[in-house]
Structures are given as structure tokens and as C-alpha cells.
Give the backbone structure.
Amino acid sequence: MSLIGIYSSVVFGVFSNTQRFLSQLRHGDPAAAPSLADMTLASLVSGVISVGIGTPVELVKIRLQMQTQPYTKANAKLNSTAPGSPVYRGPIHCLRTILQKEGIPGIYRGNVAMLLRDVPGYCAYFIPYAMFCDWITPHGSIAPNPFSIWVAGGVAGAVSWAVCTPMDVVKSRLQADGVYSNQYKGTIDCMLQSYQNEGLKVFFRGLLVNTIRGFPSSAAMFLGYELSLKAMKRCQSETNP
């Protein structure tokens, strides 16, 4: 959970600072309201950065989830390559094993699929949030209230996961590949094999669950983010009157 928290903090920080940089560049004021183009560019930058940080984290999570039995030395010695047998005894061991067997490219397995997931995904995350938050905020209010932030964040999370799900399926399959065998040659091959074997519906597997799950988690994420910003601004204004 701590890794996910750090990962999310970096993504939100990159988005916020990119927007401030673009506002400074265009308007001479970092606090100026960003345009749709600025938000889009900031979202794209966030998506690219998230892949660099998130791919190893996602890979370790998927590999550990693939194990159906707890790791024990006795079981590992008996048959460590058969499906269902334990391979990793924890996150650190998993990462070290991948590095030893596959090198740096190994820990970035699925990065292309993740790039195709996160770049449009974050555009469908930050932009709907800003638009919906603005729409439901009462006219004349200086800033959105916590309820508006919560609802807008939840809607953004649901929309984002609806956009992300097809490539998330491909990314997960690529990262799971290699635990016991190597089935896919790359992103395109994974997409083709998945389509040929299971049809178009395979890319929408888990769509409903992802969108439902995305609402409360993103609502809490945005609410925490906005309240933290307000608290830091208040502290800054009190220390620098």
C-alpha cells in the first residue's frame, strides 16, 4: 500500500507541477486557470512518468498474484516451474529473481501496453475530474466543496477505468507471462492471441468491476489531494503573511 501511495503522490505531483509550469509559461502566473490543452498535456506527461515508476510495481504485484500456493523451500525444490507451484517468497525476492533472469528489460515487461493504458487513461482521469467538478460546483463559489470533489473524483475514476480496461487486460497478461512459461512475443502478439482465442469480449473483462471499484478509490484520492493542497496553502499563508 505504501508503494501505491508513493506512486499516486508522484503522479498527482507531476500533473500539478506541469500545469503550474504551463500556466507560468503561457500567462506569466503559475496560479492561472489552466486551459484544456494545458490539462491534456499535463495528463500526458503524468501518464508517461507513471509508466516509468509503475511498471515494476505492477509487474511484481501481478507475478505474486499468479502464485496459488505460499512459498516454501520444500515446495520450490520439488517443482518450481510447474503452474501453481510457488516461485517467489515476497516482493523483494520477486524483483530480484526477475532482475537475475531477465535483467532491466524484464522488470519493464508490459511497459508498452502500460503506456497505451496510462497515457489515455490519465487524460480520461484528470480532464473529466476538472470538468465535472466545475459543473457541479455552485455558481459563485470560489472553490468546490468536499462533496463536489468527492463526486467528481469518483466519476473521473469510473470513466478512466472504462477507458483503461482493454489495455489493462493486455498489460496484465504480458506481465503474468513468464512466471511459468512464455506465451507472448509482445503487445501486438498478446492482443492477437487473446482476440483469436477469446474474441473481442476478452478486452472488456472486468470492466464493470473496474469502474465500480474506481469510483470510491478515486473519490478518496482526489478529496485527499485537494484537502492536502488547501491545508498546505493555509499553512504557507500563515507563515508568510
Residues 69-83 have pLDDT under 50 and may be disordered. Helices lie at 2-27, 36-66, 73-78, 91-107, 111-136, 146-176, 187-198, 207-239.
